[in-house]
Design brief:
single chain; alpha/beta; DNA polymerase, domain 1; 18% strand; 2 domains; Rossmann fold; 4-stranded mixed sheet; elongated
């Protein structure tokens, strides 16, 4: 079972499966599923599901599957989504409309967040999800600018942020990177479901099953670790599983990078394998 994304990981999993194995590819982005179907067209043992990782138990139940041998959660935005100008994820494509939806059937867009959230709400998400030191000033200036004109394009938002952050901090990567990350996380509700996703994933693993989580920034990393730590404390029966947490900003180095995203600039890999015998899960 894997989140599809660009289907790079899914392709390698499909190659490793024998005729009795089944790969369940999940993605909330229908376009990503279509890309995966094309990339995996030579494999007949793949099921494609439009959904999100927090629906794992429901998805398996609908398929009549109780347990799985492995789960791969490749979190965050994909290169395909960033590179597509129509999706409005990148601060490097300044003529894109503010969208940032991973699931295009969802209603909330980045434009909605930027133009309808109060100053305090904007400050909260930019500070919490972007860990931006100038969150209050950015939120205030967004609210001031939208009084004049609705903010519609990525370039308009970038310009507000660029004028807000002092020049002496300009060398710390692109000035808009943290704010764009924060708005994207808010639009797609990326952090809040993670805890339950990890707990649900552990519950549906077979004995000696493997759970692999790839994270791209510290917020995801922290949420995953908290869930793992709680799971270890609450585990009722002995279960062996391998935890692979990759906190990285540049993964798949052989992929040609087209953007200056900060979450792909530094790489930190953490590997942990645990044998669990803990009470009461």
């Amino acid at each position: 079972m894997a989140l599809c994304g660009g289907a790079g990981h899914s392709l390698e999993i499909a190659k490793a499966l024998d005729n009795t194995g089944l790969l369940i590819g999940i993605d909330r982005d229908n376009e990503a599923l279509e890309v995966a179907k094309k990339k995996l067209e030579n494999f007949s043992n793949v099921k494609y599901i439009h959904g999100n990782h927090d629906e794992i138990q429901e998805i398996l139940s609908n398929l009549g599957i109780e347990k799985v041998d492995g789960i791969l959660l490749d979190l965050g935005v994909s290169s395909y989504q960033i590179d597509n100008e129509e999706r409005g994820f990148s601060y490097m494509q300044e003529e894109s409309m503010l969208d940032m939806r991973m699931d295009k059937t969802s209603e909330l867009t980045a434009k909605d967040v930027v133009n309808t959230y109060s100053e305090d709400e904007l400050y909260r998400i930019i500070s919490e999800y972007g860990e931006e030191r100038f969150a209050r000033k950015i939120a205030r200036n967004i609210c001031e600018q939208r009084k004049i004109k609705e903010i519609e394009k990525t370039g308009e938002l970038v310009e507000i942020i660029r004028k807000t952050i002092p020049a002496k901090f300009a060398n710390d990567g692109h000035p808009a990177k943290r704010t764009f990350q924060a708005i994207r996380i808010e639009v797609n509700n990326e952090i809040k479901p993670l805890y339950e996703t990890i707990m649900s994933s552990i519950k549906v693993l077979n004995k000696s099953g493997r759970l692999c989580v790839i994270t791209f920034h510290s917020l995801e990393d922290r949420a995953v670790k908290n869930a793992f730590n709680d799971a270890l404390r609450k585990m009722y029966v002995s279960k062996r599983f391998t935890i692979l947490c990759l906190w990285c900003s540049e993964i798949r180095k052989n992929y040609k990078q087209k953007t200056d995203n900060s979450n792909r600039r530094r790489t930190k890999r953490k590997f942990k394998s645990k044998e669990c015998k803990i009470k009461n899960f």
